[in-house]
Amino acid sequence: MCIVNGENIADGAGITAKLADRLLASGADVVTLGNHTYRRGGIADYLAKSETVIRPANAGRWTPGHGLAVVEARNGVKVAVLNLLGSLYLDTPVSPWEVVDELVDQARAEAPVPSSWGIVEEQTP
Fold first, then answer.
1. CA-CA distances (angstroms) from residue 60 to 84, 93, 123?
2. Nearest to 55 by CA among 91, 14, 19, 89
3. Are 14 and 40 in contact (CB under 8 A)?
4. CB under 8 Å to 44, separation ≥6 — which residues?
5. Which of 47, 53, 84, 109 could form a disulfide with 65 if both were Cys (CB 3.0 to 4.6 A apart)?
6. By the 8 A CB rule, do 80 and 115 touch?
7. Catalytic residues
8. 27 — alpha (psi -120 to 50), left (phi > 0) or beta?
């Protein structure tokens, strides 16, 4: 299982659909994003369709994309990957604590293995 943080892969500011596809083609199973997710044009439409390139779940319910991905590991076990944006030094649209319980419940319902790696991404100033 390969989880990649694609935040800022586009010259230090967000991600593009082309770069996200390159990461997936290179072997990433899931690409997580952060507070610069929407810095590049066209990414909103891409995220609305993608099941494996995920934005922070606490970016707001009306933002395009998903904050949870469920993928199958090589051994056939489904693994849930959660993506939350931390609130240290950041103004988040929604506190991670407001959505984490519901997100974990959803992950447990869809996969026997919720990923605990990189659940909360903290940014430093």
1. 11, 6, 18
2. 14
3. yes
4. 38, 63, 64, 65
5. 47
6. yes
7. 36
8. left
Closest CA to 3 of 76, 59, 53: 53
SS3 readout for the chain: CCEEECCCCCCCCCCCHHHHHHHHHCCCCEEECCCCCCCCCCHHHHHHHCCCEECCHHHCCCCCCCCEEEEECCCCCEEEEECEECCCCCCCCCCHHHHHHHHHHHHHHHCCEECCCCCEECCCC
Q: What is the pTM of this model?
A: 0.84
Take residue 44 and report the two structure tokens written for it: 């909103």
Distance between CA 15 and CA 8 in Å, rounded? 6
Question: pLDDT tens, position by position, for the chain (125 residues)?
Answer: 899 999 889 988 889 999 999 999 999 999 999 888 888 888 999 999 999 999 998 887 788 999 999 999 888 889 999 998 876 676 777 677 778 888 888 888 888 765 544 444 444 44
Widest CA span in the chain: 40
